[in-house]
Design goal:
- The protein is built from five helices and 20 strands.
- The protein is mostly beta strands.
- The protein has two domains: about 5-50, FAH (SH3 type barrels); about 60-255, Fumarylacetoacetase-like, C-terminal domain (Fumarylacetoacetate hydrolase, domain 2), CATH 3.90.850.10.
- It is globular.
- The protein has helices spanning about 65-70, 125-130, 145-150, 155-160, 205-210, and strands at about 5-10, 15-20, 25-30, 40-45, 50, 60-65, 80-85, 90, 100, 105-110, 110-115, 135-140, 145, 165-170, 180-185, 190-195, 220-225, 230, 240-245, 245-255.
- The strands form four sheets. Strands 7-6-17-11-12-14-8 form a seven-stranded mixed sheet.
């Protein structure tokens, strides 16, 4: 089994760590991409809660990076990567609820491979790019599809709190032909299924392209796009994204509180 790097809330604070087979966490001195080393502290399984596995300064999304998904949206595949930003306030961990906002009548899942940067990256070539990627995790680029179409740009549609489930952990390597699947309510037939080599622009091209626009920093996240098969989620649903060689990111779906219901 590949080493699984996690970020957890435990007694005394927040820790980066290495997840053991028995689900205990070997605590690291800092984020592993910053050189974190084992401290000797071990957290038993019942003493911690999983958090999103990194703390990015920014989350860069990539739109329409699978041909079939671009076509199902009624658009032609882009000629170059189509990038956007998601706020870090959208991050949630595995098993935390996706909250459907009252402003939208159609929120959809988008299962994706996510890249976690390990080094500061600026204007790198595609053949250099993967050396700047520290590891790989799973994301769900949750999207209010009706607002995406209404607004003509994507910030609101993809920026609500809870709209970026990420995790449950990071692995260092992944097969270029790994299978990505999204499963709704534990159905035996996935709603999305594709291998990641079906991307129009592979990870090294995305890193190079994005680094030519903005500097990427250690811990930053790139969402690499979703395959065909996106669809609506509703309160009470369970949505899971699985990527071969990483694991399973699962989140329940609930309704967000309205403004009048929120505590002051």
């Amino acid at each position: 089994m590949a080493e699984r790097y996690v970020r957890v809330q435990g007694e005394g604070g927040v820790y980066y760590g290495l997840l053991e087979v028995n689900l205990s966490v070997q605590v690291l001195s800092e984020a592993p991409w910053l050189g974190g080393k084992p401290t000797g502290k071990v957290l038993p399984p019942e003493t911690y809660t999983l958090l999103p596995p990194c703390e990015p300064q920014k989350i860069v999304g990539v739109g329409k990076n699978y041909r079939a998904h671009a076509l199902e949206l009624g658009t032609e595949p882009p000629k170059e990567p189509l990038i956007f930003l998601k706020p870090t306030s959208a991050l949630i961990a595995c098993q935390q609820p996706i909250l459907l906002p009252p402003q939208s009548n159609r929120v959809e899942y988008e299962g994706e491979l996510a890249l976690v940067m390990g080094k500061t990256c600026h204007h790198v070539s595609p053949d250099q790019a993967l050396a700047y990627v520290w590891g790989y995790t799973i994301a769900n680029d949750v999207t209010a599809r009706d607002l995406q179409r209404k607004d003509g740009q994507w910030t609101r549609a993809k920026g609500f709190d809870t709209f970026c489930p990420l995790g449950p952990w990071i692995v260092r390597d992944i097969s270029p032909t790994a299978l990505l699947q999204t499963i709704l309510n534990d159905d035996s037939v996935p709603v999305q299924s594709a291998t990641i080599d079906e991307m129009l622009f592979p990870p090294e091209v995305l890193v190079s392209f994005i680094s030519g626009v903005m500097t990427l920093y250690p811990g930053d996240v790139i969402l690499t796009g979703t395959p065909a098969g996106v669809g609506r989620i509703a309160p009470g649903d369970q949505v899971a994204v699985e990527i071969e060689g990483i694991g399973r990111l699962q989140n329940p779906v609930a309704v967000a509180a309205t403004l009048g219901e929120r505590e002051e």
